[in-house]
Amino acid sequence: MAFRFRPDTFTLTLVGTVVLASLLPARGTFADYFHDFSNVAIALLFFLHGARLSREAVFAGLTHWRLHLLVLSVTFLLFPALGLAIKALAPGWLPDRLALGMLYLACLPSTVQSSIAFTSIAGGNVPAAICSASASNLLGVFLTPLLVTLLMQVDGGGTMSLGSIEAIVAQLLLPFIAGQMLRPWIGGWVGRHRRLVGLVDRGSILSVVYVAFGEAVIHGLWRQLPLDGLAVMVVVCLFLLALVLTATTFLSRALGFSREDEIAIVFCGSKKSLASGVPIANVLFPSAEVGLIVLPLMLFHQIQLMACAALARRYAARAPTAPLPPES
């Protein structure tokens, strides 16, 4: 029984990456180089997915409107409703700025690279995940400031810069299109080397974790929150993530989605983007308050990566095996 519940190697590697980022966060020139490496790894991941996926599969992902509607509803309706409930119940056990941070977290779009990587590891519908996560991130540029303005009564809602949108297109969409264009020549090779795609999946996640958590540590993550406050925040984040994971699993099954679609819905619908959350917070909130407001997001971001890594491995381990061909 103990062996059954032992964390897998990738989850332990994630924990080790968090510890490393806490003790030796990337700084200065090394941080710049490692950030560039992380961006290249993510771009390579999307290039390989583009080269591996057939045109028919990509078109099916684009037209899977029911799946996309469910993911967007969870991201921009269910999450904000839960954030409002947490903020309403927070007085007395959670500081006001952290409660506000939880509500801000709930208004953010989904992640892109980790949602797709975990969907791929778990054996889910990768084309649908690419379309759904990318749409969530792009719509979040406009919907998150609007939700923050409506729910948090922030004066003069802002938006992310055009450069942020260009970065999403350049880092994710263009490599995927390039992979699709080169698929007739390299698609077979990529299909025969699936382990390479798996290594890039995991490597991109580990690099994002190290960069994101290291930056949080440098900006005073452990100085701004005492241990008792940290414990409360961890419990709240765990509860929120568990609730959304349960809701996405139940809804996808109740609405008759396939196993592959369920995986995409669970991983795209349960994530919140640190990469989008920090720049939006810098626009919407006074600089003196940004640190505490984004702190719940920093914690949730790390918890969701580690929890979803374990969940992805669980899905992969339970994947149905293809039937053997009949003997001749």
UniProtKB/TrEMBL annotation:
- List the InterPro entries: Na+/solute_symporter_sf, Put_Na-Bile_cotransptr
Q: Which organism is it from?
A: Phaeospirillum tilakii
What is the protein named?
Bile acid:sodium symporter family protein
> What range does the record give for the signal peptide?
none
Q: Where are the transmembrane segments?
A: 37-55, 67-90, 102-123, 135-154, 160-178, 199-218, 230-251, 263-285, 291-312
Alphabetically list the UniProt keywords. Membrane, Transmembrane, Transmembrane helix
List, alphabetically, the Gene3D superfamilies matched: 1.20.1530.20
Protein origin, superkingdom: Bacteria
